[in-house]
Amino acid sequence: MAVKTSEDFIKTVDWNKVARLMLTSRHLDDKEENELVPDKKVLYQFSARGHELAQILLGLQLDHPHDAASAYYRSRPLMLTLGLELEDAMAAPMGKSGGYSDGRDIGVVCNLPGDKGPVVLPMAGDVGSQYTPAAGWAQALEYHRNHLENDAYEGAISVILGGDGSVATNGFWSAITMATTLSLPILFFIEDNGYGISVGSNFQTPGANIANNLRSFKNLRIFDGDGTLPEDTASLIHQSVQYVRARRGPALIRLTVPRLNGHSYQDNQSYKEKKQIKKEKKNDPLGKLKKYLVPSRISKKEWDSLSDECRDTVNQTAEKAWNRKDPDESHVTKFVYSDDEKIQSVGGLRSAGYDRPEESETPESEKQRINIVEAVRRTLDSELSINERVVVFGEDVGAKGGVHAATMDLQKKHGNERVFDTSLSEEGIIGRAVGLAYSGLMPVAEIQFRKYADPATEQLKNCGTIRWRTANKFAAPMVVRMPGGFAKCGDPWHSESNEVFFSRMIGWRLAYPSNAEDAVGLLRSAMRGDDPVIFFEHRNLLDAKSARKPYPGDSFVLPFGKGKKLQEGDDLTIVTWGAMCERTLASAKDSGISADIIDLRTLSPWDKELVYSSVKQTNRCLIVHEDTRTAGFGAEISASITEDLFKYLDAPVQRLTMPDIPMPYNINLMESVLPDQHKISEAIEKLIDF
After folding, report:
1. Is 338 contained in some domain?
2. Cα–Cα distance between 187 and 248 in angstroms, integer?
3. Backbone angles phi, psi at 517, to 5 degrees
4. Each residue of 77-128: pLDDT tens digit?
5. Which is catalytic among the residues 64, 414, 494, 538?
6. Is 64 annotated in the active site?
7. 111 is a domain residue
8. Do residues 284 and 426 both lie within one domain?
9. What 3-state class would DSSP assign to 356?
């Protein structure tokens, strides 16, 4: 039962518990700074000294099973308050087994599945990247409560912790936009210590106070105060938490706290004047807590005894943590992708108990041919109809139906909660998708053009490594639809291909269909899968006659990593994908060469077995792709074939690609640099004649 007033809450606070947690955190910092870091038992150390009181008082109020906190690198006091075992807290920065990541990530990069209580979403090492996933979680809370009609989500909130430096980031502003426009149950919890490493708050936000700057924001309640005074801090946090729990809208609380150490252990704070350091030490919340409790609630002797007890516990636990085994080296490559035997604790359809419907790799016979746009639209419609956990969103996907019409009428049929427009922030689109995926939904996000994904790179890369970084505790399966490539003309902004970029993003799968049938099968597999997927839709193929195929049915799926032979031949192997399939087929036909032509269909993973089997028979290989040459995906295929099949080759593996330039706008210029029928035919003849 929620305490009605802040005064009542203060009376219910277990101040002895607050003191124990705070002293434990402080002694933990002391142990690391004075012993473990100098002894090189801890290699990265970020002190929470000065931030503890506010975090502990916040943690005591996160008591809803579906609450989530999105933390940052000074959040260990919060983690301890929410139930993180002290030994795990110490083992993590030592890089020992267990802990947050089983030694895979920096010790302060935290997470907590929270099986029966609040979840701490996996943080990343990037400043500001914690904001948009937490906004996605908040939107998911509303979706579970309203659309899925699950009363268990009533009153749950999402809290985002950040320092004053983080308020300058794209993630912060994107999350503020989502929170205020959608009236999401989010509390922005800003711990303002006056510095971003060595840079003062006045460089982060005008006037050095984000609370003042946001007071005119519509639909955002502002709380601002001192985070070092026990009763005042408890009261202010209680007010802000209860405001958001009551579904009155999002709120931001800014608490001033001292940073009593440098940014990290290596930071000697030479940029601070001595009087500033002295002033901060006088503002230590631990001293103020002691003054608040002693002697009115406990005696000085009891305080000293508690402090000694906490110090002894930290010392003993540090020894236990150090004696843990190092992580198993043979497991370090596990959990890049989903594991059929071990489902992650948080995130995705499988962890939410969703069973995949009946599927078939055999297409149904339907006479009418459809284009890729219609294939995508029908697949989205079908999955939205049978799976209430699917949500589709992006810029212009709602009433407009998408800039390429792939979501036409889906909002009208399935409603605004399930098919919705977003603000113009790719960082926000992908970060939101991560939070939605954590909650057990299947987000299908659209990025309008490949080039527009660049601002979302941080969230995309972090999303792919979530499973590995948390040792399979968390995952964020999603689908990101992304049109690109040339069309009626080219240009550097809408026509970029650059699929190789995503093939190098750890943890992502990458689909690149060349026709409507494959688009249906791969998109459906992606939407039912347990890994994040980039689904590349080539602009020139969206309505191309060559890409039109009959709709293969609502149960049709294609597995990732399974290519397709477009035609069989004996003279050479041609490996290609996307828009180059049509041009390659035409070139092989004109040249009269018996070519084994393979459409990879997916690049992560790619069908190495099919390619190798073909090359072993033909002894020659040509790779054709639209992306630029240097370090394009063709280079990976070429290197693999040369390394593994050198003795089978009668000629060097050849690549035909774009030159290393952006796509030009002028049609003649565009065609002059793209692999075309004539260039492919020449490359075939040259390889045969070698």
Report:
1. no
2. 11
3. -65, -45
4. 999 999 999 999 999 999 999 989 999 999 889 999 987 779 999 999 899 9
5. 494
6. no
7. yes
8. no
9. coil
